[in-house]
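2024-03-11 09:14:02 DEBUG pipeline.ingest accepted 1 chain
2024-03-11 09:14:02 DEBUG pipeline.ingest length=348
2024-03-11 09:14:03 DEBUG pipeline.predict start
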Amino acid sequence: MTPRAHEVKVRDVVAETGDAVTVSFDIPEDLAPRFRYQPGQFLTVRVPSDRTGSVARCYSLSSSPHCEDRLAVTVKRTAGGYGSNWICDNLESGDLIGVLEPAGVFTPRSLDEDLLLFAAGSGVTPIMSIAKSVLAAGTGDVVVVYANRDADAVIFGNEFDRLTQRFPQRLTVRHWLENERGLPTVAGLVELARDHRDHDVFLCGPTGFTAVTLAALGQLGIPEQRVHREQYRSLTDNPFEHTAPAATPTPTGAGKDTATVRVEIDGETHMLNWPRDTKLLDMLLDHGIDAPYVCRESACGTCVCSVKSGRTRMLMNESLIDDELAAGLTLACQTLPESDQLHIAFDQ
């Protein structure tokens, strides 16, 4: 199902810390199927702007589809961050706001596996969604390593306390506070993670924290294919301002060497000529097909699709892991054709 933009009502805005809020949404019943989501996914939010009309910002869902009936994102104010400051300062219960449907691939394949979750600052948002889901609907054990500036900056501190009391045998939360221990170190993280090196790892946080954590995981010998990273990037394109081309445009690359591709998307099948120097997503948009995308930089995973037959190659990949590549998944925003005949499916 291709993500589309909708206006939804804000149910509540709750302060988590002095500079972070959780925003929950009321999703109309007729849209409920399109807003089903996996723990660790994100929403893309339309933030009004006097200068450009709007800007698009991606925020991870902090709610769990397994134990909460409303979607919620948690937003931390960042210095100079237009979107986060606007949300923290202006959004109120009852407001209408534009959002794209849930997207992203930062999700566990099973809720019955043991997980080691690393977060720093607002990176805890998808980590909380994953942790709650495993505890509520799975059998896996969860270890959370969470770094913050100080105790006042800890998002979900009370919720983590409640969860550890409810699941004392399955959840362990280890806080790293900079005002007590300094910045996280490789040696310190190795010590915290040593007994859990057989767990699958999910990691979300700023670049510095990510680099130190990856170095620690490397020292522990944890294979790269078991390490899943969430990365936040500024969008180079605003999906809310995108206007679909006319129904019968002149395709990009007309007259050039092309492959023939059958594309299944939103329950429809299209037979198209695919120029060999044109990315799959660009070709689909040029034909007026409402293909899913957000970042167009391979980081978000929104445009993931399956190569059913034929060969393709990706120019860049920052969201799919080896197992997903082996299963035939690819990113439309980075994919070029190599075979003469191909079959691509977006309906997973």
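2024-03-11 09:14:41 DEBUG pipeline.report Helices lie at 82-90, 124-137, 157-166, 178-181, 186-193, 207-219, 280-286, 322-326.
2024-03-11 09:14:41 DEBUG pipeline.predict end
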